[in-house]
Specification:
Residues 374-607 form the Mannosylglycerate hydrolase MGH1-like glycoside hydrolase domain. The chain has 727 residues and is α+β, with helices and mostly antiparallel strands. It contains 17 helices and 34 strands.
């Protein structure tokens, strides 16, 4: 799509648009994930909607199960309750039978049979247990049917894209207790779904299994089902194997949580939100060859994204630095080494996203390995510097240094298209993303009159990321005894900060411009992007308070959080994706920026707004975004219809808010953990951080609020470690 669309003409459908034909907020789906697989079910544990819907079992961007439906006596059971456990491992659904008639007689009265469905994902499999129990005083025999199917739709098809041609589906192959469904893709890859049952059904076809379940009063009966996203598994399936795999899944999640420092507070609601956030991050974490990597979000972004993972790792850095190392090493391994216009790839550039589905393999979408983000590359260098400051891990930095140098070279060459010292973007082909910052909607970068900015575009926040990247690279170079290189990088950062202030500061709107367009005209629009200038440290200290005041004004701060675009701007729309909505991660980064400049009061207001929003969210889970309507008494925030939940950087936001409030910082060389001007919001009287590590040393620290002051106490300490508090 061309950026230069007339405002008088209706906009064509933007590229890779996600149609909102059904609200995810209305469906309140149940989600599970492990590795490269995720599943979206309805409250019953079924998959009934597949057209333009995220429901189903997906593996590597392909839907391996597009239908799953349970019937008792030909009818859908009655729903009692449905939830995913606190560890995000097991989905449990309590059901009971409806009235089942035989002619005019009730053959099976409702509420006689309890059905507990328990399901989880593990290593490319979906395991499910159907446990029936007769609570009636009479014996009952009933027919239970399980309907299933696989359309092998690419994720982008499920999102709504139409394809001119698809591959060929095989006829189902049915054998004893097993059905094999297969599809030959146009990419010459055969994808296979294997469905297995134990015990063997009374009747089995390529689309349904039927069981006769006879239960005496109080008697139980169990049916097991496994769906495999691959060729037929060699091992048999049984109840013993079901529980063995479930134990493996639980242990893996607990091991990931043990790696992370935990926070317990005096506020029960905040504890629930923190526990869910930590469980979501553990679920989204995927083991790669290079280490743990947080996939971006479910359902549409359950894959490796560069920007999302870097920001998630940055916000989690104080609690679990191993995530940052995994992200850095994985992205370094996939750093672009050559030009490829279709993929927006250039030497030294860091990945935007990767996909493994049929459409990506055929380049029907450019996202197999796609590099169309302008900010992933400087953010990569920023994270490397922050990781070193947190860990003092010189072997990892030495391994990364060639990739850091390549990233800096990209910033100075391909990134700075016209040599003016600013990094700009513009897609290389019409198939790429039109906007390549984190606000990548087609209409998210505009002038005060609403006119869309023309590429190449220099975003406000990207210049800040470049500044911070140069500072980080300088510190790393100096640590490796490369003094002249470090001095040159510091000089470049200083020059950029001066030029940024001259070109982007707008006195009339009290903040930095959203961007510079292709003619170097500033987009004089107030936006949350300016808050990222605080996060990166590029903002002039004399202007930081004014930027904060603009961000926290009534036009921008809704009461729940800072809007992406405030009221009064030409394209403000609180229901839009990027032009007036509220993104938790955006607020988390702004909070870190406010804390950097010593502005703790607005940090506490942000913390309070997002905390107040969390009880209104399903499972206390902060979503990818929500609408930017102003807060009203007695009414919760307005949900966004197709927001991902869980979303990694939204889940990590609470970690960022804690860091910003408590001023958590590390000095590995001095063996110190510091708390700079720790503060707590009014809803929070006490916090305990456990497992706060610095190398092999570790500490548990408590914080108690007394009015505006916070008392810090060391509860436990192991190893050579000092705790320093500044007031």
């Amino acid at each position: 799509m061309d950026d230069r669309i007339s405002n008088d003409e209706p906009d064509p459908v933007p590229e890779f648009y996600i149609p909102a034909t059904t609200s995810l907020a209305e469906l309140e789906p149940r989600t599970l994930k492990h590795g490269d697989s995720f599943a979206v079910f309805d409250h019953y544990g079924d998959v009934l909607r597949s057209d333009r819907s995220p429901q189903g079992l997906f593996h590597r961007d392909t839907r391996y199960l597009s239908r799953l439906e349970v019937r008792i006596g030909g009818k859908r059971p009655l729903l009692l309750s449905s939830t995913v456990d606190d560890e995000n491992v097991l989905m449990s659904v309590d059901l009971t039978n409806p009235d089942v008639f035989d002619g005019r007689q009730i053959d099976l009265p409702r509420d006689s049979i309890h059905l507990l469905r328990s399901k989880f994902l593990w290593m490319g499999h979906s395991y499910e247990r159907f446990a029936f129990r007769n609570f009636d005083t009479k014996a009952h025999e009933m027919t239970v049917e399980i309907h299933f199917g696989a359309d092998f739709a690419d994720l982008f098809e499920a999102r709504g894209q139409r394809r001119a041609k698809r591959g060929r589906s095989h006829q189902p192959v049915v054998s004893a207790g097993r059905v094999v469904l297969a599809y030959d893709g146009l990419d010459n890859e055969t994808r296979v779904t294997t469905v297995r049952f134990d015990p063997e059904p009374e009747f089995l076809t390529g689309t349904a299994a039927r069981f006769r379940v006879a239960l005496a009063p109080g008697q139980r009966s169990v049916v097991l089902m496994a769906v495999t996203c691959a060729a037929q598994p060699a091992h048999a399936f049984s109840g013993e194997r079901y529980f063995f795999r479930l134990r493996q899944a639980r242990r893996a999640v607990r091991a990931a949580k043990l790696r992370t420092a935990s926070a317990t507070t005096a506020n029960a609601l905040l504890n629930e939100a923190l526990e869910r956030a930590q469980a979501d991050l553990a679920m989204l974490m995927t083991d790669t060859d290079e280490g743990p990597y947080p996939y971006a979000g479910i359902p549409w972004f359950s894959t490796m994204f560069g920007r999302d993972a870097i920001i998630t790792a940055h916000m989690m850095l104080w609690a679990d630095p191993t995530v940052a190392r995994g992200v850095l090493m994985a992205l370094a391994a996939r750093q672009a080494t050559a030009e490829d216009p279709l993929r927006d790839a250039e030497p030294g550039k860091i990945l935007h996203e990767t996909r493994g589905g049929e459409m990506a393999n055929l380049r029907e979408v450019p996202f197999g390995l796609y590099y169309g983000s302008v900010d992933s590359t400087p953010l990569f260098v920023m994270l490397a510097g922050a990781y070193f400051e947190r860990t003092f891990d010189m072997p990892t930095i030495r391994a990364l240094w060639p990739h850091i140098e390549a990233a800096v070279t990209w910033i100075d060459t391909y990134g700075d298209r016209d040599g003016d010292g600013f990094v700009e973007y513009g897609r290389r082909t019409e198939e790429g993303l039109a906007n390549q910052g984190w606000k990548d909607s087609h209409d998210s970068i505009f002038h005060a009159d609403g006119t869309l900015a023309q590429a190449p575009i220099a975003l406000c926040e990207v210049q800040g990321y470049v500044y911070a990247a140069k500072r980080a690279a300088a510190r790393l170079a100096r640590a490796m005894d490369m003094g002249p290189r470090a001095d040159a990088l510091d000089d470049q950062a200083a020059e950029l900060a001066f030029a940024f202030d001259q070109a982007f500061w707008c006195d009339d709107i009290g903040t930095y411009a959203l961007a510079l367009d292709g003619e170097k005209r500033p987009c004089r629009v107030r936006s949350s992007n300016a808050g990222h200038a605080l996060f990166s440290g590029i903002a002039d200290p004399d202007k930081a308070a004014q930027v904060a005041a603009t961000l926290m004004s009534g036009d921008s701060f809704s009461g729940w959080g800072i809007r992406t675009i405030p009221q009064g701007e030409s394209r403000y729309n609180p229901m839009s994706y990027h032009n007036g909505s509220i993104w938790p991660h955006d607020n988390g980064l702004i909070a870190l920026g406010l804390a950097r400049y010593g502005l703790k009061e607005p940090v506490l207001r942000l913390f309070g707004g997002l905390f107040d929003a969390s009880p209104y969210m399903e499972l206390r889970r902060l979503p990818e975004l929500f609408c930017g309507f102003s807060r009203r008494a007695g009414k919760g925030p307005t949900l966004y219809p197709v927001a991902c939940a869980p979303q990694a950087w939204a889940s990590a936001t609470l970690f960022a808010l804690l860091q910003a409030s408590l001023g958590i910082a590390f000095d590995p060389a001095g063996r110190e953990i510091r708390f700079d001007e720790p503060r707590l919001p009014s809803f929070l009287d006490a916090v305990v951080l456990r497992g706060l590590s610095l190398g092999p040393a570790c500490a548990d620290v408590s914080f108690c609020r007394h009015g505006a002051q916070v008392a810090v106490s060391v509860l436990k300490r192991t190893g050579n470690l000092r705790i320093i508090t500044t007031i």
